[in-house]
Amino acid sequence: MSLQFLNAFKFLKKDSFIHRLDPRTKLILALCYTFQSLLFTEIIPLFLIFISILPIILLGKLLKQWLKSIKGMAILFLIIILLNTWFYPVNGLFFGIAMSFRILIMISAFSVFFLTVDPNEFALSLISMKIPYEFAFSFSLAFRFVPTIALEAQNIIDAQQSRGYEMQKKGLINQVKNLFPLLVPLIINAIKRAFNVAEALESRAFGSKRERTYYFTINFKFWDFIFSIYLVGLLILSFYVRIFFISMPIWFKWSFPL
Questions:
Q1: Do residues 192 and 171 touch, judged by C-beta distance below 8 A?
Q2: Is residue 191 packed enough to be buried (19+ CB in 10 Å), middle (13-18) or exposed (0-12)?
Q3: Does residue 76 lie in a domain region?
Q4: How far apart are CA 127 and CA 139, in angstroms?
Q5: Are 56 and 109 spatial neighbours (Cβ–Cβ below 8 Å)?
Q6: Same domain, 6 and 103
Q7: What digits encode the pLDDT tens for the residues 140-181?
């Protein structure tokens, strides 16, 4: 059982062009690529969208972490392709590959977001968008605890295996059974941690004042505007291609009959 795909949600502090962008720009990036992937069910446009995000991953110096997260999701891609091929033998293979590319694009886009956005900056970006501080803090807190939960899950797996429990049994039914000795202690620990965090916030009078001051602020810079225009332009182009796609030849579309 591998939790490597959760590495995509752990902030990685580096000095790169993508890291220096405003968190709101990177949120636009994740949303634009998600919307683009949802527009298509064909291999070629999804493949081109996937190719367009690779330079962004390289600019952010995230290739190693991105590859680990994709490796952790490889079994999911295989299941999608096999199930579609099994139930729709005519062109289910093409549709399964296309859906794998769709998920790959979403994971890659949000990997860039989570790997390059500091939780503190994420909270400030939400506050700058007029989201109440309580909600922004909650999102930021959830953001922080994803790698913590991933590490705890791996520790539970190691502890169960050290006691002789086989977590690596093959077969779909065995994989489902293996989730119970992992999820039960993980959920219990998560509930305990939630109570501890709530008590810590109450002891610090969280929410007692409506007006707050901040250690630092974030601002949209020149490259944020340029990069945001580029991302929105790609999204508009995708909408245009989606509309134009109806008249394209069938060999290019590889459509899946729903």
A1: no
A2: exposed
A3: yes
A4: 11
A5: no
A6: yes
A7: 777 777 777 777 877 887 887 787 776 666 655 666 666 777
User: Which has the closest alpha carbon to 190: 149, 225, 219?
Assistant: 149
**Count of domains observed in the chain:** 2
Side chain identity, residue 229: I
- pLDDT of the residue at 256: 43
CA–CA distance, 15 with 181 (Å, rounded to integer):
40
Residue 235 lies in a domain: yes
Q: Among 54-58, 60-64, 170-174, 217-221, whose mean pLDDT is lowest?
A: 170-174
pLDDT in tens, 215-244: 767 788 899 999 999 999 999 999 888 887
In total, the chain counts a number of residues equal to: 258
Q: In this structure, how many other beta carbons lie within 10 angstroms of the beta carbon of residue 12?
A: 15
Judge contact between 134 and 128, C-beta under 8 A: no
